[in-house]
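Predict structure. Chain length: 227.
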Amino acid sequence: MPFFTDSTEVAVEGVGAAWRISWMRFVGNGLGALPIASIILERQTDAAPWVLLLLNALAWPALAMLLTRRAREAAAAQFRCMIVDSLFGGAWVAFMALSTVPSALFAALLVADKIAAGGIRLATRATLALVVGFAATWLALGLPYQPITSQRTVVLSLPFLFVYGIGLSVLSWRLARRVKSQNRQLQRLSRMDPLVELANRGFLIQRAPAGAADGAAPRRRRLPADA
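Prediction complete.
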Protein backbone atom coordinates (compact mmCIF):
# COMPACT_ATOMS: atom_id res chain seq x y z
CA MET A 1 0.00 0.00 0.00
CA PRO A 2 1.19 3.58 -0.54
CA PHE A 3 3.00 5.54 2.12
CA PHE A 4 5.25 8.53 2.52
CA THR A 5 8.57 8.00 0.85
CA ASP A 6 12.08 9.29 0.85
CA SER A 7 14.97 8.15 -1.34
CA THR A 8 18.53 7.61 -0.17
CA GLU A 9 19.72 9.52 -3.23
CA VAL A 10 17.82 12.71 -2.37
CA ALA A 11 17.02 12.35 1.33
CA VAL A 12 17.55 15.58 3.21
CA GLU A 13 16.51 14.51 6.68
CA GLY A 14 18.30 11.17 7.01
CA VAL A 15 17.26 8.97 9.90
CA GLY A 16 14.53 11.37 11.00
CA ALA A 17 12.74 11.02 7.67
CA ALA A 18 13.13 7.24 7.78
CA TRP A 19 11.38 7.11 11.17
CA ARG A 20 8.53 9.32 9.97
CA ILE A 21 8.04 7.05 6.98
CA SER A 22 7.83 4.05 9.29
CA TRP A 23 5.06 5.61 11.35
CA MET A 24 3.17 6.89 8.33
CA ARG A 25 3.24 3.40 6.85
CA PHE A 26 0.86 2.33 9.62
CA VAL A 27 -1.51 5.17 8.72
CA GLY A 28 -1.36 4.59 4.98
CA ASN A 29 -1.74 0.83 5.18
CA GLY A 30 -4.59 1.11 7.67
CA LEU A 31 -6.60 3.54 5.55
CA GLY A 32 -5.81 1.68 2.35
CA ALA A 33 -7.14 -1.53 3.89
CA LEU A 34 -10.66 -0.07 4.10
CA PRO A 35 -11.62 -0.30 0.40
CA ILE A 36 -9.90 -3.68 0.14
CA ALA A 37 -11.96 -4.98 3.06
CA SER A 38 -15.11 -3.71 1.36
CA ILE A 39 -14.30 -5.68 -1.79
CA ILE A 40 -13.54 -8.81 0.24
CA LEU A 41 -16.97 -8.54 1.89
CA GLU A 42 -18.67 -8.11 -1.48
CA ARG A 43 -17.07 -11.24 -2.91
CA GLN A 44 -17.61 -13.38 0.20
CA THR A 45 -14.28 -15.12 -0.18
CA ASP A 46 -12.57 -17.40 2.33
CA ALA A 47 -10.39 -16.33 5.23
CA ALA A 48 -7.11 -16.18 3.29
CA PRO A 49 -7.59 -12.62 1.93
CA TRP A 50 -8.43 -11.38 5.42
CA VAL A 51 -5.24 -12.90 6.82
CA LEU A 52 -3.15 -11.34 4.06
CA LEU A 53 -4.82 -7.98 4.54
CA LEU A 54 -4.12 -7.97 8.27
CA LEU A 55 -0.51 -8.98 7.66
CA ASN A 56 -0.07 -6.17 5.16
CA ALA A 57 -1.86 -3.56 7.27
CA LEU A 58 -0.35 -4.42 10.66
CA ALA A 59 2.47 -6.96 10.56
CA TRP A 60 4.37 -5.56 7.58
CA PRO A 61 4.63 -1.97 8.91
CA ALA A 62 5.90 -3.33 12.23
CA LEU A 63 8.44 -5.54 10.45
CA ALA A 64 9.58 -2.68 8.23
CA MET A 65 10.09 -0.49 11.30
CA LEU A 66 12.12 -3.23 12.97
CA LEU A 67 14.28 -3.70 9.90
CA THR A 68 14.88 0.04 9.69
CA ARG A 69 15.78 0.26 13.36
CA ARG A 70 18.31 -2.55 13.18
CA ALA A 71 19.84 -1.50 9.87
CA ARG A 72 23.25 0.14 9.84
CA GLU A 73 21.93 2.69 7.33
CA ALA A 74 18.31 3.49 8.14
CA ALA A 75 17.67 5.43 4.93
CA ALA A 76 18.91 2.58 2.73
CA ALA A 77 16.78 0.05 4.62
CA GLN A 78 13.76 2.30 4.28
CA PHE A 79 14.40 2.54 0.55
CA ARG A 80 14.21 -1.25 0.24
CA CYS A 81 11.00 -1.31 2.26
CA MET A 82 9.49 1.26 -0.09
CA ILE A 83 10.10 -1.04 -3.03
CA VAL A 84 8.35 -3.86 -1.16
CA ASP A 85 5.42 -1.54 -0.44
CA SER A 86 4.98 -0.84 -4.13
CA LEU A 87 5.16 -4.57 -4.83
CA PHE A 88 2.36 -5.21 -2.32
CA GLY A 89 0.33 -2.32 -3.70
CA GLY A 90 0.41 -3.79 -7.20
CA ALA A 91 -0.68 -7.17 -5.84
CA TRP A 92 -3.71 -5.62 -4.12
CA VAL A 93 -4.71 -3.81 -7.31
CA ALA A 94 -4.77 -7.20 -9.04
CA PHE A 95 -6.72 -8.75 -6.17
CA MET A 96 -9.36 -6.01 -6.49
CA ALA A 97 -9.77 -7.12 -10.12
CA LEU A 98 -9.03 -3.59 -11.31
CA SER A 99 -11.96 -2.08 -9.45
CA THR A 100 -11.86 1.39 -10.96
CA VAL A 101 -11.83 3.81 -8.02
CA PRO A 102 -9.53 2.08 -5.51
CA SER A 103 -7.22 0.75 -8.24
CA ALA A 104 -6.75 4.18 -9.78
CA LEU A 105 -6.29 5.69 -6.32
CA PHE A 106 -3.64 3.17 -5.32
CA ALA A 107 -1.72 3.44 -8.58
CA ALA A 108 -1.77 7.24 -8.64
CA LEU A 109 -0.61 7.67 -5.05
CA LEU A 110 2.02 4.96 -5.34
CA VAL A 111 3.62 6.96 -8.14
CA ALA A 112 2.90 10.46 -6.83
CA ASP A 113 4.56 10.03 -3.47
CA LYS A 114 7.69 8.60 -5.05
CA ILE A 115 8.00 11.54 -7.42
CA ALA A 116 7.37 14.06 -4.64
CA ALA A 117 9.94 12.62 -2.27
CA GLY A 118 12.42 10.69 -4.41
CA GLY A 119 12.19 12.01 -7.95
CA ILE A 120 11.94 10.12 -11.21
CA ARG A 121 14.58 7.54 -10.34
CA LEU A 122 12.75 6.32 -7.26
CA ALA A 123 9.38 6.51 -9.02
CA THR A 124 10.69 4.37 -11.87
CA ARG A 125 11.94 1.63 -9.56
CA ALA A 126 8.79 1.66 -7.47
CA THR A 127 6.54 1.58 -10.54
CA LEU A 128 8.45 -1.41 -11.87
CA ALA A 129 7.86 -3.21 -8.56
CA LEU A 130 4.18 -2.28 -8.73
CA VAL A 131 3.86 -3.73 -12.24
CA VAL A 132 5.63 -6.94 -11.21
CA GLY A 133 3.38 -7.38 -8.16
CA PHE A 134 0.28 -6.71 -10.22
CA ALA A 135 1.22 -9.01 -13.10
CA ALA A 136 2.22 -11.95 -10.90
CA THR A 137 -0.93 -11.72 -8.76
CA TRP A 138 -3.26 -11.11 -11.69
CA LEU A 139 -1.94 -14.16 -13.54
CA ALA A 140 -2.13 -16.31 -10.40
CA LEU A 141 -5.78 -15.32 -9.85
CA GLY A 142 -6.77 -16.06 -13.45
CA LEU A 143 -6.88 -12.51 -14.84
CA PRO A 144 -9.92 -11.24 -12.88
CA TYR A 145 -11.57 -8.09 -14.22
CA GLN A 146 -14.41 -6.37 -12.33
CA PRO A 147 -14.06 -2.62 -12.94
CA ILE A 148 -17.39 -1.56 -11.41
CA THR A 149 -16.90 -0.06 -7.94
CA SER A 150 -19.67 -0.19 -5.36
CA GLN A 151 -20.79 2.94 -3.56
CA ARG A 152 -19.55 1.59 -0.23
CA THR A 153 -16.07 0.98 -1.64
CA VAL A 154 -15.99 4.48 -3.10
CA VAL A 155 -16.94 6.00 0.26
CA LEU A 156 -14.32 3.95 2.09
CA SER A 157 -11.69 5.12 -0.40
CA LEU A 158 -12.26 8.78 0.44
CA PRO A 159 -10.49 8.86 3.85
CA PHE A 160 -7.42 7.34 2.26
CA LEU A 161 -7.53 9.87 -0.58
CA PHE A 162 -7.89 12.96 1.59
CA VAL A 163 -5.70 12.00 4.53
CA TYR A 164 -2.91 10.65 2.38
CA GLY A 165 -3.09 13.49 -0.13
CA ILE A 166 -2.88 16.14 2.57
CA GLY A 167 -0.12 14.26 4.36
CA LEU A 168 1.89 14.00 1.15
CA SER A 169 1.56 17.75 0.61
CA VAL A 170 2.70 18.46 4.16
CA LEU A 171 5.71 16.17 3.77
CA SER A 172 6.73 17.81 0.49
CA TRP A 173 6.42 21.25 2.08
CA ARG A 174 8.55 20.23 5.05
CA LEU A 175 11.20 18.75 2.80
CA ALA A 176 11.28 21.92 0.70
CA ARG A 177 11.67 24.06 3.83
CA ARG A 178 14.44 21.81 5.10
CA VAL A 179 16.33 22.08 1.81
CA LYS A 180 16.05 25.88 1.83
CA SER A 181 17.21 26.03 5.44
CA GLN A 182 20.22 23.85 4.74
CA ASN A 183 21.10 25.90 1.66
CA ARG A 184 21.03 29.09 3.73
CA GLN A 185 23.19 27.45 6.40
CA LEU A 186 25.74 26.28 3.83
CA GLN A 187 25.84 29.73 2.29
CA ARG A 188 26.42 31.26 5.71
CA LEU A 189 29.18 28.78 6.56
CA SER A 190 30.90 29.53 3.25
CA ARG A 191 31.12 33.19 4.23
CA MET A 192 31.66 33.13 8.00
CA ASP A 193 34.16 31.61 10.38
CA PRO A 194 32.01 29.45 12.70
CA LEU A 195 34.35 29.98 15.68
CA VAL A 196 34.52 33.75 15.75
CA GLU A 197 31.34 34.51 13.78
CA LEU A 198 33.25 36.83 11.46
CA ALA A 199 33.63 36.94 7.72
CA ASN A 200 36.31 34.51 6.58
CA ARG A 201 39.28 35.24 4.34
CA GLY A 202 37.66 33.83 1.21
CA PHE A 203 34.61 36.04 1.57
CA LEU A 204 36.75 39.12 2.22
CA ILE A 205 38.88 38.40 -0.85
CA GLN A 206 35.75 37.94 -2.89
CA ARG A 207 34.29 41.21 -1.70
CA ALA A 208 37.50 43.24 -1.76
CA PRO A 209 37.66 43.96 -5.52
CA ALA A 210 34.04 45.00 -5.59
CA GLY A 211 34.50 47.23 -2.55
CA ALA A 212 37.64 48.77 -3.99
CA ALA A 213 35.92 49.39 -7.28
CA ASP A 214 32.91 50.95 -5.58
CA GLY A 215 34.97 53.08 -3.20
CA ALA A 216 37.57 54.27 -5.68
CA ALA A 217 36.70 57.69 -7.05
CA PRO A 218 38.30 58.82 -10.30
CA ARG A 219 40.89 61.54 -9.82
CA ARG A 220 40.55 64.70 -11.85
CA ARG A 221 43.67 66.17 -13.36
CA ARG A 222 44.19 69.71 -12.23
CA LEU A 223 44.85 72.04 -15.06
CA PRO A 224 47.33 74.88 -14.56
CA ALA A 225 45.74 78.26 -13.98
CA ASP A 226 45.81 80.68 -16.87
CA ALA A 227 48.48 83.31 -16.59
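Summary: The beta strands are 192-193, 198-199.
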